[in-house]
Amino acid sequence: MNDYLPGETAIWQRIEGTLKNVLGSYGYSEIRLPIVEQTPLFKRAIGEVTDVVEKEMYTFEDRNGDSLTLRPEGTAGCVRAGIEHGLLYNQEQRLWYIGPMFRHERPQKGRYRQFHQLGCEVFGLQGPDIDAELIMLTARWWRALGISEHVTLELNSIFAHGTVRWKLVRITAMRWWHSLSSIKKSWTKTANAACTLTRCAYWIQKIRKCRCFSTTLRH
Protein backbone atom coordinates (compact mmCIF):
# COMPACT_ATOMS: atom_id res chain seq x y z
CA MET A 1 0.00 0.00 0.00
CA ASN A 2 1.28 3.46 -0.77
CA ASP A 3 0.52 7.16 -0.58
CA TYR A 4 -0.21 9.55 -3.43
CA LEU A 5 1.47 12.89 -2.86
CA PRO A 6 0.21 16.29 -4.08
CA GLY A 7 2.24 16.13 -7.27
CA GLU A 8 0.68 12.78 -8.15
CA THR A 9 -2.93 13.58 -7.32
CA ALA A 10 -3.16 16.01 -10.24
CA ILE A 11 -2.34 13.14 -12.59
CA TRP A 12 -4.98 10.96 -10.94
CA GLN A 13 -7.59 13.72 -11.27
CA ARG A 14 -6.87 14.12 -14.98
CA ILE A 15 -7.11 10.37 -15.61
CA GLU A 16 -10.34 10.01 -13.62
CA GLY A 17 -11.89 13.06 -15.27
CA THR A 18 -11.10 11.72 -18.74
CA LEU A 19 -12.55 8.31 -17.93
CA LYS A 20 -15.74 9.84 -16.51
CA ASN A 21 -16.28 11.96 -19.63
CA VAL A 22 -15.91 8.97 -21.94
CA LEU A 23 -18.22 6.82 -19.81
CA GLY A 24 -20.85 9.57 -19.76
CA SER A 25 -20.81 9.80 -23.54
CA TYR A 26 -21.68 6.08 -23.70
CA GLY A 27 -24.59 6.42 -21.26
CA TYR A 28 -22.96 4.85 -18.20
CA SER A 29 -24.03 6.02 -14.72
CA GLU A 30 -21.78 5.99 -11.67
CA ILE A 31 -22.56 3.76 -8.70
CA ARG A 32 -20.63 4.07 -5.42
CA LEU A 33 -20.12 0.87 -3.47
CA PRO A 34 -18.98 0.07 0.08
CA ILE A 35 -15.33 -0.73 0.61
CA VAL A 36 -16.31 -3.38 3.18
CA GLU A 37 -18.80 -6.15 2.34
CA GLN A 38 -20.03 -9.34 3.97
CA THR A 39 -17.48 -12.11 3.33
CA PRO A 40 -20.04 -14.65 1.98
CA LEU A 41 -20.75 -12.28 -0.93
CA PHE A 42 -17.28 -12.78 -2.37
CA LYS A 43 -17.18 -16.48 -1.56
CA ARG A 44 -20.35 -17.02 -3.60
CA ALA A 45 -19.38 -14.71 -6.45
CA ILE A 46 -15.69 -15.56 -6.85
CA GLY A 47 -15.77 -19.16 -5.60
CA GLU A 48 -14.49 -20.63 -2.36
CA VAL A 49 -11.85 -22.76 -4.11
CA THR A 50 -9.91 -19.83 -5.59
CA ASP A 51 -6.68 -18.09 -4.67
CA VAL A 52 -8.53 -14.81 -4.18
CA VAL A 53 -10.82 -16.21 -1.48
CA GLU A 54 -8.35 -18.60 0.12
CA LYS A 55 -5.19 -16.47 0.14
CA GLU A 56 -5.70 -12.88 -0.99
CA MET A 57 -8.72 -11.41 0.82
CA TYR A 58 -8.40 -9.14 3.86
CA THR A 59 -11.05 -10.66 6.13
CA PHE A 60 -11.88 -9.88 9.76
CA GLU A 61 -14.68 -10.19 12.31
CA ASP A 62 -16.50 -7.17 13.70
CA ARG A 63 -17.74 -6.81 17.27
CA ASN A 64 -20.90 -8.72 16.44
CA GLY A 65 -18.94 -11.69 15.13
CA ASP A 66 -19.86 -11.04 11.49
CA SER A 67 -17.20 -11.82 8.90
CA LEU A 68 -16.34 -8.78 6.77
CA THR A 69 -13.93 -8.35 3.88
CA LEU A 70 -12.20 -5.42 2.20
CA ARG A 71 -13.45 -5.67 -1.36
CA PRO A 72 -11.00 -7.49 -3.69
CA GLU A 73 -13.02 -6.52 -6.78
CA GLY A 74 -16.13 -4.55 -7.68
CA THR A 75 -18.41 -6.81 -9.72
CA ALA A 76 -19.87 -8.73 -6.76
CA GLY A 77 -20.76 -5.55 -4.88
CA CYS A 78 -22.26 -3.97 -7.98
CA VAL A 79 -24.51 -6.97 -8.62
CA ARG A 80 -25.54 -7.06 -4.95
CA ALA A 81 -26.46 -3.37 -5.02
CA GLY A 82 -28.43 -3.81 -8.24
CA ILE A 83 -30.45 -6.68 -6.77
CA GLU A 84 -31.06 -5.03 -3.39
CA HIS A 85 -32.24 -1.75 -4.92
CA GLY A 86 -34.32 -3.24 -7.74
CA LEU A 87 -32.15 -1.92 -10.56
CA LEU A 88 -31.99 -5.15 -12.55
CA TYR A 89 -35.56 -6.44 -12.83
CA ASN A 90 -36.78 -5.91 -16.43
CA GLN A 91 -34.39 -3.00 -16.80
CA GLU A 92 -31.33 -2.14 -18.82
CA GLN A 93 -28.47 -0.72 -16.82
CA ARG A 94 -25.04 0.60 -17.70
CA LEU A 95 -23.11 1.22 -14.49
CA TRP A 96 -19.54 2.10 -13.63
CA TYR A 97 -17.55 2.42 -10.42
CA ILE A 98 -14.06 3.40 -9.38
CA GLY A 99 -12.16 3.08 -6.14
CA PRO A 100 -9.60 1.20 -4.07
CA MET A 101 -9.59 -2.61 -3.97
CA PHE A 102 -7.53 -4.83 -1.69
CA ARG A 103 -5.71 -8.13 -2.30
CA HIS A 104 -3.00 -9.73 -0.19
CA GLU A 105 -0.90 -10.67 -3.21
CA ARG A 106 2.81 -11.36 -3.38
CA PRO A 107 4.60 -7.98 -3.46
CA GLN A 108 5.89 -6.94 -6.87
CA LYS A 109 7.42 -3.78 -8.24
CA GLY A 110 4.66 -1.33 -9.14
CA ARG A 111 1.91 -3.65 -7.84
CA TYR A 112 0.38 -2.85 -4.48
CA ARG A 113 -2.01 -4.67 -2.19
CA GLN A 114 -4.28 -1.64 -2.35
CA PHE A 115 -4.93 -0.80 -5.99
CA HIS A 116 -7.45 1.36 -7.83
CA GLN A 117 -9.88 -0.25 -10.23
CA LEU A 118 -12.46 1.10 -12.63
CA GLY A 119 -15.18 -1.29 -13.71
CA CYS A 120 -18.13 -1.22 -16.11
CA GLU A 121 -21.11 -3.52 -15.59
CA VAL A 122 -23.97 -3.94 -18.07
CA PHE A 123 -27.25 -5.65 -17.16
CA GLY A 124 -30.34 -6.62 -19.15
CA LEU A 125 -28.90 -6.32 -22.65
CA GLN A 126 -28.71 -9.33 -24.97
CA GLY A 127 -26.40 -10.13 -27.85
CA PRO A 128 -22.74 -9.37 -28.57
CA ASP A 129 -23.29 -5.63 -28.92
CA ILE A 130 -22.12 -4.93 -25.37
CA ASP A 131 -18.90 -6.86 -25.92
CA ALA A 132 -18.16 -4.65 -28.92
CA GLU A 133 -19.20 -1.53 -27.02
CA LEU A 134 -16.80 -2.23 -24.14
CA ILE A 135 -13.96 -2.94 -26.55
CA MET A 136 -14.58 0.37 -28.35
CA LEU A 137 -14.96 2.11 -25.00
CA THR A 138 -11.56 0.87 -23.86
CA ALA A 139 -9.93 1.93 -27.14
CA ARG A 140 -11.50 5.38 -26.80
CA TRP A 141 -10.10 5.69 -23.26
CA TRP A 142 -6.65 5.07 -24.60
CA ARG A 143 -7.05 7.73 -27.28
CA ALA A 144 -8.48 10.25 -24.80
CA LEU A 145 -5.57 9.62 -22.42
CA GLY A 146 -3.05 9.93 -25.26
CA ILE A 147 -1.59 6.45 -24.82
CA SER A 148 -3.05 4.65 -27.85
CA GLU A 149 0.36 4.58 -29.55
CA HIS A 150 1.86 2.70 -26.62
CA VAL A 151 -0.71 -0.10 -26.25
CA THR A 152 -2.08 -2.78 -28.57
CA LEU A 153 -5.67 -4.03 -28.69
CA GLU A 154 -5.98 -7.73 -29.50
CA LEU A 155 -9.25 -9.66 -29.83
CA ASN A 156 -9.83 -13.27 -28.88
CA SER A 157 -12.79 -15.65 -28.75
CA ILE A 158 -13.30 -19.10 -27.24
CA PHE A 159 -15.47 -19.91 -30.28
CA ALA A 160 -12.49 -19.81 -32.65
CA HIS A 161 -11.66 -23.53 -32.53
CA GLY A 162 -14.68 -25.29 -31.11
CA THR A 163 -17.79 -25.03 -29.03
CA VAL A 164 -18.05 -23.83 -25.45
CA ARG A 165 -18.77 -27.37 -24.26
CA TRP A 166 -15.62 -28.78 -25.90
CA LYS A 167 -13.55 -25.96 -24.45
CA LEU A 168 -14.92 -26.71 -21.00
CA VAL A 169 -13.95 -30.38 -21.37
CA ARG A 170 -10.40 -29.41 -22.32
CA ILE A 171 -10.14 -26.88 -19.48
CA THR A 172 -11.42 -29.48 -17.02
CA ALA A 173 -8.85 -32.04 -18.19
CA MET A 174 -6.01 -29.52 -18.05
CA ARG A 175 -7.01 -28.40 -14.58
CA TRP A 176 -7.13 -31.98 -13.33
CA TRP A 177 -3.66 -32.69 -14.72
CA HIS A 178 -2.24 -29.53 -13.17
CA SER A 179 -3.83 -30.29 -9.82
CA LEU A 180 -2.61 -33.88 -9.75
CA SER A 181 0.95 -32.78 -10.47
CA SER A 182 0.98 -30.07 -7.81
CA ILE A 183 1.51 -30.88 -4.15
CA LYS A 184 -0.01 -27.54 -3.21
CA LYS A 185 -3.54 -28.65 -4.09
CA SER A 186 -5.52 -31.13 -2.06
CA TRP A 187 -7.82 -33.75 -3.60
CA THR A 188 -10.85 -32.02 -2.12
CA LYS A 189 -10.06 -28.72 -3.82
CA THR A 190 -9.40 -30.49 -7.11
CA ALA A 191 -12.76 -32.25 -7.02
CA ASN A 192 -14.59 -29.02 -6.20
CA ALA A 193 -12.83 -27.14 -9.00
CA ALA A 194 -13.63 -29.84 -11.55
CA CYS A 195 -17.28 -29.96 -10.51
CA THR A 196 -17.48 -26.18 -10.86
CA LEU A 197 -16.12 -26.31 -14.41
CA THR A 198 -18.49 -29.07 -15.52
CA ARG A 199 -21.45 -27.00 -14.33
CA CYS A 200 -20.42 -24.03 -16.50
CA ALA A 201 -22.36 -25.22 -19.56
CA TYR A 202 -25.57 -25.09 -17.53
CA TRP A 203 -24.89 -21.66 -16.09
CA ILE A 204 -24.08 -20.16 -19.49
CA GLN A 205 -27.79 -20.41 -20.28
CA LYS A 206 -28.72 -18.82 -16.96
CA ILE A 207 -26.29 -15.94 -17.35
CA ARG A 208 -27.95 -14.90 -20.61
CA LYS A 209 -30.95 -13.71 -18.59
CA CYS A 210 -28.83 -11.17 -16.76
CA ARG A 211 -25.70 -10.53 -18.75
CA CYS A 212 -22.88 -8.84 -16.94
CA PHE A 213 -19.78 -7.72 -18.75
CA SER A 214 -16.88 -6.13 -16.97
CA THR A 215 -13.83 -4.24 -18.06
CA THR A 216 -11.29 -3.08 -15.53
CA LEU A 217 -8.26 -0.88 -15.21
CA ARG A 218 -5.92 -1.76 -12.37
CA HIS A 219 -3.01 0.12 -10.85
UniProtKB/TrEMBL annotation:
<feature type="domain" description="Aminoacyl-transfer RNA synthetases class-II family profile">
    <location>
        <begin position="1"/>
        <end position="154"/>
    </location>
</feature>
<keyword id="KW-0963">Cytoplasm</keyword>
<dbReference type="InterPro" id="IPR004516">
    <property type="entry name" value="HisRS/HisZ"/>
</dbReference>
<comment type="subunit">
    <text>Homodimer.</text>
</comment>
<dbReference type="GO" id="GO:0006427">
    <property type="term" value="P:histidyl-tRNA aminoacylation"/>
</dbReference>
<dbReference type="GO" id="GO:0005737">
    <property type="term" value="C:cytoplasm"/>
</dbReference>
<keyword id="KW-0067">ATP-binding</keyword>
<dbReference type="InterPro" id="IPR045864">
    <property type="entry name" value="aa-tRNA-synth_II/BPL/LPL"/>
</dbReference>
<protein>
    <recommendedName>
        <fullName>Histidine--tRNA ligase</fullName>
    </recommendedName>
</protein>
<keyword id="KW-0547">Nucleotide-binding</keyword>
<dbReference type="GO" id="GO:0004821">
    <property type="term" value="F:histidine-tRNA ligase activity"/>
</dbReference>
<dbReference type="Pfam" id="PF00587">
    <property type="entry name" value="tRNA-synt_2b"/>
</dbReference>
<dbReference type="InterPro" id="IPR002314">
    <property type="entry name" value="aa-tRNA-synt_IIb"/>
</dbReference>
<keyword id="KW-0648">Protein biosynthesis</keyword>
<keyword id="KW-0436">Ligase</keyword>
<keyword id="KW-0030">Aminoacyl-tRNA synthetase</keyword>
<dbReference type="InterPro" id="IPR041715">
    <property type="entry name" value="HisRS-like_core"/>
</dbReference>
<dbReference type="InterPro" id="IPR006195">
    <property type="entry name" value="aa-tRNA-synth_II"/>
</dbReference>
